[in-house]
Amino acid sequence: MILLAVLFLCFISSYSASVKGHTTGLSLNNDRLYKLTYSTEVILDRGKGKLQDTVGFRISSNVDAVLLWRNPDGDDDQLIKITMNDVNVENVNQQRGERSIFKGKSTPQVLGKENLEALQRPVLVHLIHGKVKEFYSYQNEPVAIENLKRGLASLFQMQLSSGTTNEVDISGDCKVTYQAHQDKVIKIKALESCKIARSGFTTTNQVLGVSSKATSVTTYKIEDSFVVAVMAEETHAFGLNFLRTVTGKIVSKQKLELKTTDAGPRLMPGKHVAAVVQAVNSKYTARPIVGQTFPSKCKGCPSLLDRWQSTRKHLLPDNLSKAQAVRSFLTFIQHLRTAKKEEILEILKKEDKEVLPQLVDAVTSAQTPDSLEAILNFLDFKSSSSIILQERFLYACGFASHPNEALLKALITTFKGSFGSSDIRETVMIIIGALVRKLCQNDGCKLKAVVEAKKLILGGLERPEKKEDTTMYLLALKNALLPEGIPMLLKYAEAGEGPVSHLATTTLQRYDVPFITEEVKKTLNRIYHQNHRVHEKTVRTTAAAIILNSNPSYIEVKNLILSIGELPKEMNKYMLAIVHDLLRFEMPASKMVRRVLKEMIVHNYDRFSKSGSSSAYTGYIERNPYSASTYSLDILYSGSGILRRSNLNIFQHLGKAHLHASQEIQLQSGLKANTDVQGGLAIDISGSMEFSLWYRESKTRVKNRVAVVVTGDITVDSSFVKTGLEISGETETGLEFISTVQFSQYPFLVCMQMDKDAVPFRQFETKYERLSTGKGYVLRKRKERLVTGSEFPLHQENSDMCKLVFAPEPETASNGWF
User: Fold this and answer.
1) Which residues form the signal peptide (predicted)?
2) What does the pLDDT look like over 258-294, one tens digit per residue?
3) Inter-residue contact 679 to 704 (CB < 8 Å)
4) Residue 513: CA atoms inside 13 Å, Cβ hemisphere, count?
5) Using 50, 70 and 90 to split pLDDT, how confident is the model at 609?
6) Phi, psi angles (nearest 5°) of residue 377
7) What is the DSSP string of 302-318?
8) CA dist 629 to 591, 625, 626, 677, Å?
């Protein structure tokens, strides 16, 4: 028994679970005081840096643990008192030297006297079978300090045997797996399974979404059947999907180690733990072991109006295509998310027309109850004098990263009211469709407002009040992509008038392949082959594109190719271009097309030599192992050379990932971490047209200037010290589409060019540590590179036509006038 008294947290291995007195988890010896050392540290970095480049801090202390009470009816029912003392806070990076924010600061100065007293106040932990049954603390302790003690107490929860179970600790209700070995027990916590109330939001946007990975491993070191040390490590890593250089990592460690034991107090008598707790101190109250949230405080921060004044100049119309405009916009959104309705309304009412549209964008993008209430109070949909502001509000709603039911309800109520503009009424319904789609993607399809919105859209298509409303509801369905709307779309696609039929068909084109069933493809085949009625060329070619993109059968592909030669001239050429594009640019239907072309009756010179100007072409803008950017240009002319349809689509393809755009993380050490990723896009579109009767030529230029900024921010806050990592990337680019038409001959010559400007890419990295008293340390880095511009290749026929349009001037033998 003397030997047992020197060791830490006695384990009596359970050879038989039915034997009374045998423990299944940690068990302290009677009448002993266990003296331990404890430390917890957090490190922030991009995941591949050196220790001297990291930021973070370490909290260390001595710990006294003593068994106060054991249930007379079972050894596995215990009440333990845990006390932290001799607390110290320091840098993880010991090479910081004179630049350390803790240099010359005592622990009371760093934590504050009240925080230090609270941290050193004991807590009581009720363990049953090694699991925390109850956590007792004083009332009204600072939440951040109480969380640190929760993190320490959670280390006392474990089991000796291997197996998977659910446990409740500071991280929430989590799935944990124990692996028991002779000299250690390893506990692996599945952090993604933890059920805990968190602020923040997720996004279903694969482009601007974030891939994240989290791990938690705790090792209980055992010597001679006794635990002598506990080591825990938790990591959270994230990376932006389309910009892999924007990454961040949190590493949180805990270590609890036995130093010695002394004689301790005798066990308290009693059969009920609640009575024992009250006998220890009546100020103790049962508190959740799960970590609690607390707001970060900002001392001496500028008002929202002051922040707007410093942001405003960057959002003037002439600056909108610059990266600084996007960066300022994103920063101001963060401030709006903590603002009250009255503050927001004050700024909206004072701003002039020049910057007001951008302010409406920002307020709507904040996506808080206060910002929504403020903007709805500010806008008057019955007025026709503020249409631009109403449009900007609605577009911002459509692009919302994490819309909620309240926003959808507000738009439904607005739609049922009066409007000063019929165009705004139509836009409201279209945006309702977009919100339905996003809410359904986040498992919100059964929300009351979503159900009501579905009825509005589908009911409007089934029984439109006015004929022109059909287009409005089809556009809403094109955004919502409701599976139950497909039968209605098939009806309008096959029996509707030209524009309605075309809209219904292009809506079907947006559905995922699993929704394009055999029944749907039967209708599309009837449309393309005109089995029941004549359809416009644009409708037929769209139907063909859907079939080819939806796992077409052998006979479907064969019939489509066999139709080439029987179609109008330009449609022949367009369908032929689609086949060539499938063969050149590997797509799901490419293999089937190659199989069909092995038949001589299908693959012959007559069919594949059809001439014309129409085309379909797909190419890469950029590709790497993680993602690819593609563009596709479809052009369909009429027989007289008039452009019937021109579509330019740019796609970003990414692998599947778990996505979190903003998230609060409860670290098991008790510290609170926040990750926040924002992306902003500013687009400035301008155009010009030159027309010359002398040269019989017209030139149209459409210039798209784009600025993109993405910021990733990780912070860890203990209320008395804060550390953070900010990573951002920005770029400004331009994409120009030039169309030159020469009408000196018939059919007209048309040359199209798509040019990308040189692209500067800048990346910034800021790491910091800051005390609540104001003292701080900051490390900044910057990288910049220039990506050269380029002209994207289009279809071969376009290249041939451009050679004719820009043919070199013939050289003359004479230098004279004639």
Assistant:
1) 1-17
2) 999 999 999 999 989 999 999 999 999 999 999 998 8
3) no
4) 9
5) confident
6) -70, -35
7) PPHHHHHHHHHGGGSGG
8) 22, 12, 11, 21
